[in-house]
Amino acid sequence: MEFKRQVATIDMTPASQHWQIADYHAEYRSGHTTPLALTEDRLALAEAGDPALFIRFTTERALQEARHSTRRWAEGQPLGPLDGIPLVWKDLFDMAGTPTTAASAWLADAPPAIADAAAVASLCRAGAVSLGKVNLSEFAFSGLGLNPHFGTPQHPLSPGLSRTPGGSSSGSAAAVSGGLVAVGMGTDTGGSLRVPAAFQGLVGFQPSVARYDQRGVYPLSRSLDTIGPIAHSVRDCITVDAALRGRAGWGDDSLAALPLAQLHLLVPANVVLDQAEPEVRPRFERAIEGLRAAGARVEIEPVAIFDRILDLSAEHGTLAAAEGYHWHRERVDGPYADRFDRRVLARLQRGRHMTASDLLAIQQARVEWQAAFLVQLGKRVLLMPTVVHVAPECAALEADDELFHRINLRTLRNTMLGNFLGLCGMSLPMGLGRDGLPLGALLQCPPHQDEVLLSAALTVEAVLNRPSKGS
């Protein structure tokens, strides 16, 4: 297979760049367009656009799905809110008849999948239109999104490949922020949905582990992996969440916003703003003050367990490294290890050097600290910056592996704390930082309290979207 390489890109951004699912409904109901016409348009834009965005188009499938959806809309009988809605899949999800490459040279010639992943089948039954499979960090093991095999997707808000799109769900976010689709489906092990969402001014929902059926999704860490959507709004993520849980009809995504008087937030006083770029702290403080002024209760206090998690990782390694190495050990230890992205290989090799004692120390601490943290959190919702910097420049990271690993660790620091503690989380746009690039605010709740998280996110999103001085 001939790999796609980074080349000059063509502007692919349509006028409907910020369309949410309800906007597609309005267009279909008014007759201004149909799912088929829109799908043909988006496929043409995608094929003329960034060559590093899609690993594979599913053109015939998309057109067939769009034809069926067009007929249902014409008959006044759409299946539900996802009927005719364009989306893409991170190339970790099996789609019948297409290979699953995980954006790796190792799987570039993989045989076609026999069946759809469970999540793909769920959204297909809901009427969604799948344009294709998009790029990612190789084997989903990086928070920055660089890929030497298939190219690095451009950051649509910083064209010319000058900024990283965020990872590992780089293509899923770029397809949404570039205006091609309403939803980009991805995965999250240490921040891979929330980081690219934050870098690109989007909403990224990392649900609790096992909230959805993950059969047919290529793994990195079975203990940490989740799947979820990136979209323009919390409401759109709620719509996808409903469909993934088999509730795809009209009215099944009607979760209400949490009343502001009931919104009780915990802001950590330690770790989460360490090494922050100068614009991040004042932007985050304005978000806090805006929430307080709107009626939310915000408490700031140290979370000592965060420091302990970082110390534990520095001493013993991480679950993702251990489980990632276990999954790929024959490749890592074999004669062709140089087929890996060298930066991914370096991270997997750290798992090779971990001992059984290291793994036990991590697992035992995780159980104890999860329980202790939930006692401290109580009924509050955790709030922090998603990432403490805007999307960094690609060129410097490509040229300096030590810099890459240092920035990658900083990029994932805040989000991976939640993965370690088993939390569900959502990144929301939090205004702009350096060079006018987006920043994100991260909300997190205890495991399996996803409805609480989604209700709180609706409330916080509305406050953060209000115009304010200095925004």
Task: Report on the architecture of this protein.
The protein has 15 helices and 11 strands. It has 471 residues and is an alpha/beta fold. Strands 1-3-2-4-6-5-10-11-9-7-8 form an 11-stranded mixed beta sheet, sandwiched between helices. Helices cover 40% and strands 13% of the residues.
Spans with pLDDT under 50 lasting ≥5 residues? 1-16
Main beta-sheet strand count, sense and barrel state: 11 strands, mixed
Strand content: 5-15%
Q: For the largest beta sheet, what order do the strands appear in spatially?
A: 1-3-2-4-6-5-10-11-9-7-8
Secondary structure layout:
Blueprint: H1 21-30, H2 35-48, E1 54-57, H3 59-74, E2 86-90, H4 118-125, E3 129-134, H5 170-177, E4 183-188, H6 194-199, E5 203-206, E6 226-231, H7 234-244, E7 264-268, H8 280-294, E8 297-301, H9 304-316, H10 319-333, H11 342-352, H12 356-377, E9 381-385, H13 394-399, H14 401-420, E10 424-432, E11 438-445, H15 450-464
Parallel strand pairs: 2-3, 2-4, 7-8, 7-9
Antiparallel strand pairs: 1-3, 4-6, 5-6, 5-10, 9-11, 10-11
Helix pairs in contact: 2-3, 9-12, 10-11
Provide a concise account of the structure shown.
This protein is an alpha/beta fold and 471 residues long. Helices cover 40% and strands 13% of the residues. α2 runs antiparallel to α3, α9 runs antiparallel to α12 and α10 crosses α11 (342-352).
Essential attributes:
about 475 residues; about 40% helix; alpha/beta; single chain; disordered N terminus; 11 strands
